[in-house]
Write a structure and sequence with these properties.
single chain, alpha/beta, six-stranded mixed sheet, 6 helices
């Protein structure tokens, strides 16, 4: 591998520059260990920072517990498409997905998040009510965080509200 290139890429990411060359599977154990320790030591550095990106992409790692690989694949494809088109974005993860966390985004993409709590769906509903825009890809909010069927999916709850766009891989509708 390219030790110095990998170290530079991680330094760029740590500085908030995105780390354009940080890719899964690239890097040695030494580099991974160094940056893991660095982030632990400087954990408070990012407190209170707000994103300047216009696009947020929901990535809930819990979907893997339920073997919802469609979500993981969708996030990967969206990440690739946004990166290829030089569109800056943030991944929105469970610990930072609450009331107000979506406020600065012009668009939030929700890719096939089949397992969502009522609270998570409420965050998206409030985001729309506050003038945000959602792109919902595939089935979202079919089950709750314990795997039980919701009475109404996210699509059922949002319907045809202004600011909500539905898409499937390769197709889109408003």
């Amino acid at each position: 591998g390219n030790y110095h290139g990998n170290m530079l890429s991680n330094a760029e990411a740590a500085a908030g520059g995105g780390g354009a060359f940080v890719q899964p599977g690239i890097g040695t154990t030494e580099e991974t260990h160094f940056w893991g320790e660095w982030f632990k030591k400087h954990a408070g550095m990012y407190e209170g920072m707000e994103s300047v990106h216009d696009v947020g992409v929901v990535f809930f790692a819990e979907q893997m517990y339920w073997e919802d690989l469609i979500h993981v694949d969708s996030v990967y494809r969206i990440r690739q498409a946004l990166s290829d088109n030089h569109i800056l974005f943030d991944l929105l993860v469970e610990p930072h997905f609450g009331a107000g966390d979506l406020r600065g985004f012009k668009v939030v993409v929700v890719p096939s998040v089949q397992y969502m709590s009522r609270e998570q769906m409420g965050v998206l509903i409030d985001y729309i009510a506050d003038g945000g825009r959602l792109v919902i890809i595939g089935d979202c909010g079919i089950f709750d965080e314990r795997g039980r069927s919701h009475e109404h999916s996210l699509r059922d709850m949002l319907g045809t509200q202004s600011g909500v766009y539905y898409a499937e891989i390769g197709r889109a509708s408003c």
